């Protein structure tokens, strides 16, 4: 992998200091030069992805980027941060892949993607959603999708009525039913946060099973 990154660095004409973080990770301190940070990193990342396109037997790579630095020492101190971003990015579903990732690209969804196989995370998601998933399996009345829409609009019922194409009275009746199924108040901020994270874990698990 170090050799692959070195080759990509030469092809992209991006000077870099390379070192191994282990059997599947490479650290790179990149001299951005006149192209600037994003330009140089994009060139290096695209060269790496082109390798995989040319040779399908090569494993795909994910590129995580840390904060820019003015000295090699400062850049070295940021490598662990870049390593975390790359690990999280590599765990994301294929549809969310980009040439390279910063911390702002992965955020909570990326952390969930990285940790979703942890039994404690799975237990949390099951505890939050089990009653709803059982209901959905036996009724198929769209309650799971209604919850997903409710979380997506941040609990804004006016916006939810618009995106779900329901009248306000019909929506309130549906939400009250959803609350009875879940056994929680959807107006509670902590409940919305917990349910939102549980949905991310549930969706990540489903995408991994396809």
From TrEMBL:
- Gene3D superfamilies xrefs: PucR C-terminal helix-turn-helix domain (1.10.10.2840)
- The residues the entry assigns to the signal sequence are none
What is the species of this protein? Answer: Mumia xiangluensis
Question: In its UniProt entry, what is this protein called?
Answer: PucR family transcriptional regulator
* InterPro entries with a match to the protein in the record: CdaR-like_regulators (IPR051448), PucR_C-HTH_dom (IPR025736), PucR_C-HTH_sf (IPR042070)
Boundaries of every PucR C-terminal helix-turn-helix domain copy = 144-200
Transmembrane segment boundaries = none
């Amino acid at each position: 992998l170090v050799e692959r990154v070195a080759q990509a660095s030469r092809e992209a004409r991006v000077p870099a200091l390379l070192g191994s973080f282990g059997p599947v990770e490479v650290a790179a301190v990149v001299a951005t030069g006149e192209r600037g940070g994003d330009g140089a990193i994009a060139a290096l990342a695209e060269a790496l992805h082109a390798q995989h396109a040319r040779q399908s037997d090569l494993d795909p790579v994910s590129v995580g980027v840390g904060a820019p630095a003015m000295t090699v020492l400062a850049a070295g101190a940021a490598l662990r941060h870049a390593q975390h971003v790359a690990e999280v990015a590599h765990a994301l579903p294929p549809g969310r892949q980009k040439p390279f990732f910063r911390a702002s690209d992965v955020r909570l969804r990326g952390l969930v993607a990285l940790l979703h196989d942890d039994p404690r995370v799975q237990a949390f998601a099951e505890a939050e959603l089990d009653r709803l998933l059982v209901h959905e399996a036996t009724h198929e009345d769209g309650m799971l999708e209604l919850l997903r829409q409710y979380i997506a609009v941040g609990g804004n019922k006016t916006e939810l009525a618009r995106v779900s194409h329901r009248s306000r009275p019909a929506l309130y009746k549906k939400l009250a039913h959803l609350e009875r199924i879940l056994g929680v108040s959807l107006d509670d901020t902590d409940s919305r946060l917990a349910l939102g994270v549980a949905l991310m874990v549930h969706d990540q698990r489903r995408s991994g099973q396809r």
